[in-house]
Specification:
Largest sheet: 5 strands, mixed
Radius of gyration: 30 Å
Number of helices: 7
Structural class: alpha/beta
Distance between the termini: 102 Å
Number of strands: 5
Length: 205
Amino acid sequence: MEQISPTCKLKACPCGQSHQMARRTFMRSLLAGAIAFPFLPVTQPAIAAAHQPKALVLSCIDFRFVTALQQFLEPTFAQQYDWTALAGASLALAGFPHQADAAAFWDQLDLSYRLHHVEKVIIFDHQDCGAYASLIDPQLSKNPDREEQVHKDYLNRAYSAIKKRYPQLNVELYFLKLDREVKSILPANEIPQMAEKLKVNYGYA
């Protein structure tokens, strides 16, 4: 009977192959996994009870202003706000580029109000907006004073529409500039006249 050396017992496998190298590879991979495992990140579960946003924020989709907007909101809201973004921000409530944009905003506000009990809506328009250029004038940003006034007009129209549906909600209006200045826009006193002005001056009802 053939004698098998203790160091060669793996040769007795019925398949006739040596598994010494496979065993070494397995042990190395097991050791590597044991070392790496403690460093795997631990995902913390979301705490539903702590989710109580204070406002719904509407902004434009323009990526250039996201950081400035977040930095402006942080001291007061500490990331406790719902956020929706639609091209043109205030223009969405006027149905631009489609009525579906207005419907999307109202749907989001309804959910935010019913599910999260928000008490405020905050709208951020911004300088050099492509949506405004498309609707009003491609050269609108070349005249900063006129540009800001046009945004004020549409922001006020958005204010009026929201207050009509949700009179209990506070509404804040802001205009973001390219230098990251955030300018507060006070609501106009005569909203009906503002709507007529929009129609006459810009041809958009």
